[in-house]
């Protein structure tokens, strides 16, 4: 599709015209390099015609790249100035017929495809699309993990996520058990799918230049038959996630100590770990998702 990606001059001019002062609280750093946009889109493995969800379109740098690749895009932006300006920016860099719907909303509050279908196209029309199959975004850094988990939870139609986040967050999401980086986001992401690093991005391609490094991380949802074995009756995600939170709240402690208060007392904690077949002197940071699932099942069976 014929589209002009945003240049550094475009980014400066749009910000000046709209009197935009990028804010740190909303993680507003805008990409002004077409090569980087195409690198992100390639890592996102999008196909033409596919309905892609974008969170935090900002000035439209990545949005235009997705449209260039032939995607249909629903973009969710929390900042009213940016959400309002996006249709005219995109029409000016391409055309008003491009398949982009813009929703002015906090991405953390978006819970259903019905909400996406309320967003009008940039020519004002309301169209109903099938649920998005992919999420591609340059996320606001302070809420990147909750945003990723929100869409994994509420949009089962999304088979793959490719996001640009702070490098440390990308490493956390894709970490395997044992190390210092492995934590709550690693285990929770592993409940839904397989996460992997998918490239690094120079901080020089943003305006303003952030004071952290950025990386791409990809999460591919498990296919049927992959992922943790949930048993019969299936253990609930809530039961497992509560244990994950408790185990990492005191990550330097043994599980026996870390789960004592959570279970009620030391005896119950020991019983829980024994029932799950997990050595009580291990630390939470050594457990993989299957072991947390075993703990969740044991807790459910013990009525904890
Ligand atoms: N995608 C653009 C780009 O690559 O240049 C902008 C990325 S910027 C890092 C993050 C964007 O997310 C900003 O436009 C910001 O206003 C928006 N944002 C921040 N918090 C949000 C939230 N909770 N829901 C939706 N958008 C949000």
UniProtKB/TrEMBL annotation:
Its main location: cytoplasm. Residues 36-223 form the Ribosomal RNA adenine methylase transferase N-terminal domain. One of its GO terms (molecular function) is 16S rRNA (adenine(1518)-N(6)/adenine(1519)-N(6))-dimethyltransferase activity. HAMAP family: 16SrRNA_methyltr_A. InterPro entries: KsgA/Erm, rRNA_Ade_diMease-like_C, rRNA_Ade_Mease_Trfase_CS, rRNA_Ade_methylase_Trfase_N, rRNA_adenine_dimethylase, SAM-dependent_MTases_sf. GO terms for cellular component: cytosol. It comes from Gleimia coleocanis DSM 15436. This is Ribosomal RNA small subunit methyltransferase A. It is found in: Cytoplasm. Its EC number is 2.1.1.182. It catalyses: adenosine(1518)/adenosine(1519) in 16S rRNA + 4 S-adenosyl-L-methionine = N(6)-dimethyladenosine(1518)/N(6)-dimethyladenosine(1519) in 16S rRNA + 4 S-adenosyl-L-homocysteine + 4 H(+). S-adenosyl-L-methionine binds at residues 29, 31, 56, 77, 106, 138. Keywords: Cytoplasm, Methyltransferase, RNA-binding, rRNA processing, S-adenosyl-L-methionine, Transferase. Specifically dimethylates two adjacent adenosines (A1518 and A1519) in the loop of a conserved hairpin near the 3'-end of 16S rRNA in the 30S particle. May play a critical role in biogenesis of 30S subunits. Signal peptide: none annotated. Belongs to the class I-like SAM-binding methyltransferase superfamily. rRNA adenine N(6)-methyltransferase family. RsmA subfamily. SUPFAM superfamilies: S-adenosyl-L-methionine-dependent methyltransferases. It holds the Pfam family RrnaAD.
């Amino acid at each position: 599709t014929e589209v002009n990606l945003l240049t550094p001059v475009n980014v400066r001019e749009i910000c000046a015209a709209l009197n935009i002062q990028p804010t740190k609280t909303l993680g507003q750093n805008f990409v002004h390099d077409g090569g980087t946009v195409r690198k992100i889109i390639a890592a996102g493995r999008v196909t033409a015609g596919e309905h892609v969800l974008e969170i935090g379109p900002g000035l439209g740098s990545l949005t235009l790249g997705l449209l260039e690749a032939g995607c249909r895009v629903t973009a969710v932006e929390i900042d009213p100035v940016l959400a309002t300006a996006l249709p005219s920016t995109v029409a000016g860099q391409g055309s008003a017929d491009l398949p982009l719907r813009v929703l002015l909303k906090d991405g953390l509050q978006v819970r259903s495809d019905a909400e996406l279908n309320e967003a009008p196209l940039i020519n004002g029309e309301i169209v109903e699309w099938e649920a998005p199959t992919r999420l591609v975004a340059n996320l606001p850094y302070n809420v990147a993990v909750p945003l990723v988990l929100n869409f994994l939870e509420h949009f089962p139609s999304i088979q793959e996520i490719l996001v640009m986040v702070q490098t440390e967050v990308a490493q956390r999401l894709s970490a395997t058990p044992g190390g210092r980086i492995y934590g709550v986001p690693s285990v929770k992401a592993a409940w839904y799918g397989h996460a992997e690093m998918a490239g690094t991005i120079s901080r020089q391609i943003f305006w303003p230049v952030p004071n952290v490094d950025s990386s791409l991380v990809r999460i591919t949802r498990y296919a049927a038959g992959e992922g943790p074995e949930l048993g019969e009756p299936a253990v609930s995600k809530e039961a497992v996630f509560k244990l994950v939170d408790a185990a990492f709240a005191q990550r330097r402690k043994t599980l026996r100590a870390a789960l004592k208060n959570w279970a009620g007392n030391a005896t119950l904690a020991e019983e829980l770990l024994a029932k799950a077949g997990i050595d009580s002197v291990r630390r939470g940071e050594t457990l993989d998702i299957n072991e947390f699932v075993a703990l969740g099942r044991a807790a459910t069976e013990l009525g904890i």
